[in-house]
Structure formats: structure tokens, C-alpha cells
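Hi X.,

You mentioned you wanted examples for the new student's onboarding notes, showing what a folding record looks like when two proteins sit in one file. Here is a clean example. The first protein comes first, with its sequence line followed by its C-alpha cells.
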Amino acid sequence: MNRFGSFFKPMTWIAALLLAALVAGCGADQTSGQGNALSAATAPPLGTEQVYAVLGGSTVTNTGSSVITGNLGVSPGSAITGFPPGIVTGVTHAADAEALQAQTDTTAAYLNLEGQPCTSDLTGQDLGGMTLVPGVYCYSTSAQLTGELRLDAEGVSNAVWVFKAGSTLTTAVNSSVVLINGADPCNVYWQIGSSATLGTTTSFVGSILALTSITLNNGASVSGRVLARNGAVTLDNNIVTVPVCNVPPTSIPPTLSKSFSPDTINAGGVSTLTITLTNANGTPANLSGPLIDNLPPGLTVVAGSVSTTCIETPVPLAGWFIVDTGKVGLTAEGLIPANSSCTVTAQVTAAAAGTYVNSLPAGALQTDHGNNADPAVSTLVVH
């Protein structure tokens, strides 16, 4: 025998054992413990839909004493029924510009979630009884939850979970989603390829973004959002609450800009004043004081022309943006969407020729992310 034979033979067995261990490790269940770092879940971009607890595509119907903490809307449909006896603590929008924008933003978030690569394929497995670390969990067809699903952040405050179902999501009676070790309901998302149905008294966590419809059976509750793009949202004695998300410790102060269009008019003509509020943070910037733009003397607001794309926070207020012949702005009841901008616009006119310099000073825009550091100035010339 070759004198190396006795050496290579045991080495061959060792290599085989190492290979077997490696293969076994690659096939290990990733539904608990560490997820796949190469395919980490990320929160989708959120716009105006983030203040909606319930948003339907065709209709929103309610039976019984549901409580909606946040805004309620429908678009392109217009029917909302069952409120009262249902209670909405926010603002209701039916087939208006605000609801349409919320649907547009929901679509953008839905497509973002749909495009995230999977950490684990759970097709055919019930979510009940699982403990899942952050990741993107996928079902090629239907997802089912029977019992308790635990989401473990492992102490990571910004941990994100994305669940993707090719067709439906269904939960059984008394099912629940439980957050542990610092998991945040703000960071749980469910992208559903057709419709979602939550069983009676299900306690659910996360924002559901469904292509078609969402049904909450009697007594089901959601800490998150219920957003249906094309179909109906059906409620029955439910509680749906938009969660309060943590503001990051390091915030970027908002910015202000303004413009007149056109910037030159004849006396008695009309120009559109646009004030733009920009928020570069990943969470909304909530106004902590009123934003008031006092126009220069001689420049006046055309009656009925003031509007805003900024979001009214979930408090039913009348006249939350300021309407006055000599000033425009917002009360302290609005917010600027995360990673986005919103505007206040008004048509203005002047009877006398002149140069009208309109300015907002540094610090005029006060939010929980800080105040604007630079002034916003624009000039209108009237001939």
C-alpha cells in the first residue's frame, strides 16, 4: 500500500463529515434565531397613508361599535357606512384628493414590499407557534396564522419584519401576533396579493397592505393599519389603532421654501403663493406650533383659494389651516410626511403696483424634529 494511503483515507472521511455538516447548516430552519443578513427587511417609504388606520378602495363598511384611532378613508370609491355607531378619532375622507393621495402612497409602499427579496420561504407552514427574528418571510400562495406568532427583535429597536403572501392571509379565531424583546408595531408589514381575513377576536400587529379587500371579523383588533388598494374594508366591532412610532434621537430639522407663480403680474392680477415644507426624516415631522405667513401690506389672499397637502393629525378640527385676507399657514395640528414634502398654497393679488417681498424667518416652522434654520423668501412684482 502507498505509504500515504493510511493518511488520505481518514482525511476523506473527515472531509465528507464537514461537507455533510455544511449542507445541514444551509438547510437549517431560518424561522427562528438569526435571519439572512444578505436579505434584510426594510420599512417601505411612507407618505400620507401613514395617518390612516383604515383605507378602502371601493367601500368601507362597519357593523357595531368599532373604534378607529387615526384617519378613515376610501378612494376611488366613495361609500363609508356604519359610522356611527362606529367611532373615528381622526378625519374621514371619501373620494377626495386626500384619500386619492393616500391610495397613491399605499401603492408605492405595497410595490416596495412586494419587491423585497425573501429571507425565508414559509410556503405551506402555519405561522402559529413560530418565533421569528427580523426578515422577509414569503408565501407563494396563502399564509395562515393559527395560534400565536412571536416576533423577536433581539433588542434591536429598528428591527423590521415583512410578510409577503402571493394570494391571501387568514387568521383563525383567537390568533395573535406578540412582540418581544423590543419589537415595534411600527416596523411590521404584511403585503397581501389578494385579500386578508382576520378571524374573530384575533389580536393582530402590523400594517396590512392588500391588493383587494380586508375583512376583520367580530372583535378582531389591529395595532397598525388596514389598507386595501382596490376592494372593500369590512369591519365588525373592531379596534384599529395607528401605532405611535418612536422619533429617532438624531433628527434633521425641516426646511422651508416659497415661490410665486407667476412672479410678475399686473395690478389686480392673481399669482399662486406656494409654501413648501420638507421633512428628510424617516418619521413624520409633527408641528409643535403654528406656521403663520403674514403677507406684506397691500398683498391679499383671494377668498376660498387656500389649500394644503400637509396632513391633519388625528384630531377632528375645523379650519386647521389658516384662512385670512392677510395671512396663510397651518395651526399646530398638522404633520409633514416622512421623507417627503407638503405644501400650503393660496392665490394672492395686489391692487397697487410695487415689489412685494414675502418672507418667513428662521424658526417659523416648529416641529418635533426641530425648526427651520434658514428663512424662506420670495418676491412678487406687480406692474
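Then the second protein repeats the pattern, sequence line and then C-alpha cells:
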Amino acid sequence: MKLHHGKFAPLILCGAALFIWGCAGHSSPRGSAGAPVLSDGTTAGADHPMSAPDSADSMATAVNVFGEFDGVQRTLAHAYGDAGFQQHTFLEEGYDNDVNVDPTGKWMVFTSTRHSEHPNIYLQRVDGMSVIQLTNDEADYAYPTFSPDGRQIAFCSTRSGNWDIYLMDVDGKNVVQVTNGPMQHVHPSFSPDGTRLVYSSLGSKSGQWELWTVDLNSGEKRMIGFGLFPSWSPAKGADRIAFQRARQRGSRWFSLWTLELADGEARRVTEIAVSANAAIVSPTWSSDGKQLAFATIAEPTATAGIKPAGQQDIWAVNADGTNRRRLTDGIGMNLMPAWASDGRVYFISDRCGSECIWSVKLEGSDGDKAKMAQKSTGQTLGDAN
């Protein structure tokens, strides 16, 4: 099973089948023959402008004083100062994905295809432009996440053939494989003390995505339920995990759930948020464990089996399911949120033309953000049951 990750493509799964939701942009996923797949679903051939030039003449394009090729203006980044939006990465080619911020709030780790068709892991200061490439091979990488002490990064990769979970130091050294075998293992998340991971595995018998924990000291693994994209609350007073789960098996209508671990067993499995017109995906905890951010995808039923028809936005909600509010403005696609210790929520958006990393501040979220949400049209959670 080859899991294509990227091109603004969260893993939205129905039973044992895997669907990729793409969007138009500058980057492209790989086709079956390795050629770029265009936004219209076609594959670039040797004579297509997206294909690599094979002669010196084909590379002879004029560059003007503005740094534009053949007079074509580059995509402009829009300023959203009133809403507190900030752009952290800038791309001409490829896409960024899977952002996660370290406990200090100063560094972020993410995957990107800026240098290769295979997503690799990069490290960057949140207020800087220089990036450090931590992996560089022909495997695919996804979902890097910092340990609570900021010294290690857990991630998943196809470097052994299947998707498996790995650990490495924050400088990319001392890589250790945590899972192995024929099952697909994705999306690790650390426990508050850093001694355990929770992740998703595609069950060979159940045919469903299962939630598993692993003790990093003993190697003991336990299945704790069914779900996808688990996120362990950083609050040390409670062993609480958020995840998404389809309301009906084989459906894309995901809702947000939490569970609490007691002696390694799942307890108090509770549905926190659900929408009548959107799938709720990719939950992430605030640093105090009191709130959750997540993405919604309106009308998630695929169009021609390729992408959803509806708007995609970032929301926040209290851990008990109250005080839901939208953080993004309905512009572009907004997915894969990650909460930082300074209260900003980082996410992936194509609002600048390419899939880059953005963040939004939550100050005034009950006032200014509510007004912003009322002005924009699209899906709401107000009618959620």
C-alpha cells in the first residue's frame, strides 16, 4: 500500500480504503509513472510546461528587474493584519505540510517537497526564514512532532517499506524505529511525560484504523480503540487523548472524540464536537490541555473521487465541547492545525497560492474572530447535534 502524502492532502479514510483530497496549487503529487499530476487530473507529459526541460533552448526564459520570468508576476501574499494571520514559510515549488511547534514556541518542524517529490522533514525558527533539512532520501515522511522536552522528534516514514513510527534527535541523528511489521502506522503523539506514544494503525484483521499506545522504554504496545489522528493532551494531570472517528464505518463524516486512559485502558470515550454539514479532522491540544483546535471540511463527499466540494477552516473548542469558534476566514483551504505554547494556532493554507505554513492568534477570539466568522459565508457548527 503506497500512501501518497502531501499536496494539501490529509489522510481521510473510509474503512480500509484511502482517499486523497487535493487542491489546485503550485505543487503536484506524483502520478503512477512518476510524472506530475496536474490540478485538472491529467499527467504532465514530456511536452508539458511542468515537465523538466531537456534542452538549453527550453530553459532560455527572460528575467526582468523584478525577478519575474517572462514578465509573469509572482503570486502575491495577502496581509490579514486585522485577523492576526502570519505567514511563516514561502514557496515557489512544492508544498509544506504537517507543522508542529516545539514546547518553547520558537521552532517548528514540518514536512515539505520543496527540494524533492518525496516529502522530507525540515526544522525552522517560527520567526525566521532559514530551514534545516533533517531527512534526505527517497522515502516519504509525515507527521513529525516534538517530544515534551523538545529534544526528540517522532515521525512516520516509508523508509522500511511500510509506514512505520520512528524517533530521532532534534538534529536528525540517532534514528530509532519504534514500530515494524506489515501494518501501516502513522501520526505519532507523545504522552505528557514523553515515555509513551499514541498512533494509528490500519488493522490487518479489522480493516479499520485503530488507536495504539507504545511504551518507549519497554516496547509494550496496546490497542485502545478505533480512530485516526490521535493527539495526546499535554496536561499532566489527566491521561487524555483526542482523535477523529467516523460516525458510521466507511463514512467521511468524522467527528471529534476524546478518551481517558486508566491502567492502559480507554475510559470515558466521548464525542466532543460534531457537525451536520462538515467533517471534523486533525485535532490538536492547547498547551494547557483546556482547548482543542481542529479542521472542518464542509460537504466532505468527494467530487469525482478526488477532492471535497466544501470550504475548509480551522476551529477551536473547549475540551468539554463548549465555546466553539472559527479561527480562519474562509479564504483558501486551511488544514492540519498545531497549537503553540504562545497561544497561536499554526496551520497549512493555500491562501497565498502555495501550500505554506500560517498561524493565527487567539486573542480576541470571542470578539473579533466571532465578527470575522459572521461576515464570511460557508459551513458553521452552530447546527451541530
